[in-house]
Amino acid sequence: MAKRKLVTLNEEVKYLLGEVELEFRHKDGTFSHRQVEHNIVKIFMKECLSHRLPYSKIWDPEGGSDLQGAWVDSGIDPLEEFSAKYILLGASFDANGVPLDSNDPRYYVTDTVTGLKVPIRLEPGAYYDGELINAIPISEPYRPLKKIENIYFESTYQPAGTPLLQSDVRAINNILVLETTLRDNEYNGFGLTESDYFTITEVALAAGKTIDHVGSCNCVPRKIFLDGPYPAEASGSNVVTLNNSADAAHIKAGDQIKITGPHGSGSDGEHDIMGQVSPYYLVLSKSGTGKDLSLDRTPVDSHNVPITGSIYVWVDSLRICSMRVLSQPAKKSSDFQIIIRWRIIMS
After folding, report:
1. Which domain holds residue 280?
2. What is the pTM of this model?
């Protein structure tokens, strides 16, 4: 009987590994301490990479004025919205803006063996505002939408010749580092407590449309990445129809959209989600005119009653590449600046 080879899962599956580093520095720039959290980049990052790899042109052997060949449009747009541009932050605070540290069941639970507070296990589904558990509302300049401020590569070393026969090695730039800095005057709490600090508990790497400044919207990140509204009609099925043909150019198959009521914002300043458990849907396809959008499911309210009539459609460009609940909260006050580095290891 032939022997069967047993392999581990890690031998069969390649991962995109990640690492989040928080480097604390005093106000004068001197080093204080470092906190490193290991992470696995979400499968969506592979989709981001696949959209970034193709060139926007292909070679036509019979192209050009002399028919000797030329670069022509490939029909593929290496979408900038799939590039990681932002680092989003969530924190542990109550309705009054008071820091809760690790005494926040949204983030930490008590280990039954050690009695210590440990991070919750992240579930596959989306979370709340901007896919963060408790996003810090953005209000520039003191709570800005943090953009990637520095990009560079780090090297690992692999055999250049035949393994075990040659000792020479070569450097391979296969670690991508995305970096931003929380400055002295940024993310120091709501100013409502004597301590005046945030206990940052979650960090997310995100892709999306290019945004410069958002002002003092005091809103969660996801709201900034919504484009619209585009008036439409819900039919009670998985097809919704845009009212205006011109709006079809702004929505394509594969987009994530948000469906809300047509009457503007609610009393809390948020969109009217018409009783839906989740107002977000995936556009599977469009009709020839582009006005009819086929969604991944029928829009229904929390009682499973199909939604009909006038609605608004919003296009959501925010894409969370990876997310991490910190093993312990990182306190940010005006005494420190924090350099956040997100490493993606192309193993």
Report:
1. 226-316
2. 0.80
